[in-house]
C-alpha cells in the first residue's frame, strides 16, 4: 500500500472526525486526492467502519463486558475458522480473536447484566461442538481503550516525586 494512504489511515484512526480538507492540510496534499483515497479505502474494505469510543462509566445505561477464553478442538480442513464463525454470529459478541498460548479463542461479549453474560456462556457458547472449556473474565473497570484514557484526574497540585 502506498505511503500516502497509510498516512490517511493513521490520521483517521487517531480521529475519525477529521475531514478530507483537514487531512489534506495536514499532509500538504490536494483535498480531492485525499477524498479519492478515502473513497478507495472504503470501497476496498480497508476502512470498514467509523466508530465512537464511549466511556460507559459516565452513562446511566450500564453494560457488562466479559472476555472469555475458549479452548476448542479444530475442525478438520477448516481449523479454528468454522467455530470462530459460529461464535461471531451471535449479536452479543463484539470481538473474536485466534490466540497463541493456553487457549485458542478470546471472545469479547457485552450484556446488560452478569446473568445475561452467564446465560450466553452456558446456553450458547459452551454447548457448541468442539468447545472443550471456557474461562470468563469480567471487565471491572476500563482505564484505556483504543488509545483513549478514561481516568478523570482531579487537579492535583502536589509536586511529582517520581514518574
Automatic annotation (TrEMBL):
Top-level lineage group: Bacteria
InterPro entries: AsnC-type_HTH_dom (IPR000485), Dimeric_a/b-barrel (IPR011008), HTH-Siroheme_Decarb (IPR050684), Tscrpt_reg_AsnC-like (IPR019888), Tscrpt_reg_AsnC/Lrp_C (IPR019887), WH-like_DNA-bd_sf (IPR036388), WH_DNA-bd_sf (IPR036390)
Keyword Transmembrane helix: no
Keywords: DNA-binding, Transcription, Transcription regulation
GO molecular function terms attached to this record: sequence-specific DNA binding
Entry annotated with the keyword Metal-binding: no
SUPFAM superfamilies assigned to the protein according to its UniProt record, in alphabetical order: Dimeric alpha+beta barrel (SSF54909), Winged helix' DNA-binding domain (SSF46785)
SMART domains, per database record: HTH_ASNC
Residue ranges of domain HTH asnC-type in the record: 1-81
Classification via Pfam families: AsnC_trans_reg, HTH_24
Protein name: YugG
Originating species: Paenibacillus mucilaginosus 3016
Amino acid at each position: 500500500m502506498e505511503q500516502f494512504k497509510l498516512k490517511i489511515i493513521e490520521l483517521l484512526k487517531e480521529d475519525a472526525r477529521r475531514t478530507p480538507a483537514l487531512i489534506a492540510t495536514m499532509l500538504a496534499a490536494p483535498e480531492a486526492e485525499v477524498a479519492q483515497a478515502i473513497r478507495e479505502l472504503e470501497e476496498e474494505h480497508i476502512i470498514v467502519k467509523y466508530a465512537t469510543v464511549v466511556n460507559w462509566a459516565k452513562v446511566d445505561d450500564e453494560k457488562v463486558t466479559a472476555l472469555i477464553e475458549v479452548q476448542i478442538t479444530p475442525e478438520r480442513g477448516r481449523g479454528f475458522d468454522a467455530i470462530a464463525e459460529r461464535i461471531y454470529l451471535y449479536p452479543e459478541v463484539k470481538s473474536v480473536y485466534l490466540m497463541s498460548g493456553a487457549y485458542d479463542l478470546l471472545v469479547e461479549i457485552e450484556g446488560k447484566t452478569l446473568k445475561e453474560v452467564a446465560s450466553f456462556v452456558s446456553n450458547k457458547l459452551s454447548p457448541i461442538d468442539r468447545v472443550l472449556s471456557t474461562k470468563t473474565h469480567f471487565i471491572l473497570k476500563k482505564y484505556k481503550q483504543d488509545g483513549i484514557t478514561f481516568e478523570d484526574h482531579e487537579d492535583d497540585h502536589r509536586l511529582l516525586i517520581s514518574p
